[in-house]
Amino acid sequence: MLPPGHIAASYILIKSVETLGFKISLPEIMLILVASVVLDFDLIVAHRLKKSHHDLFTHTPWGVFLIWLGFILLFGANLSLATKILVLVVFFIHLFLDELGFWLCKLGFQEVSKESQINWLYPIKKFKDRQESFPLNAKFLLHYYQKAKANVFLEIVLSLIALLVFWLT
Hints:
The two termini are 26 Å apart. This protein is mostly helical and 169 residues long. Helix 2 runs parallel beside helix 5 and helix 4 (61-75) runs antiparallel to helix 5 (81-106). The longest helix has 26 residues, at 81-106. It contains seven helices and no strands.
């Protein structure tokens, strides 16, 4: 999934939590939204290593937990408990949404992501030796929009719901 889908899903989550009575400040909302895409900053490292960024430690539950601990060490003194938990939740939602492409492909709804995208059992299960899926360029986006139609549809729906929630709140 691309950043707009991750951000939209996270925004919907934030607003859902607020309906339960939790107060989340604007800086905390912004931090949570940044956290929703921070895992994909590993694209730069993956590109240099000629690997899929889903085959890096940062896209595993253990990696997510360690990155979350880093967030807590950096920002924790200024964050509510709800925000600390939401950051961890959006990290796991990120992994789930990335893995969803595999299941959509397996079910025949799209042509992209024929292999599992997330190594849920790392470090017990080692990474596959896969090459970089796509270089960082516009061709990737074109390929994605043509071959990952279910993901694109989901991203559009999530984005529209997030916009609607934004306008209504």
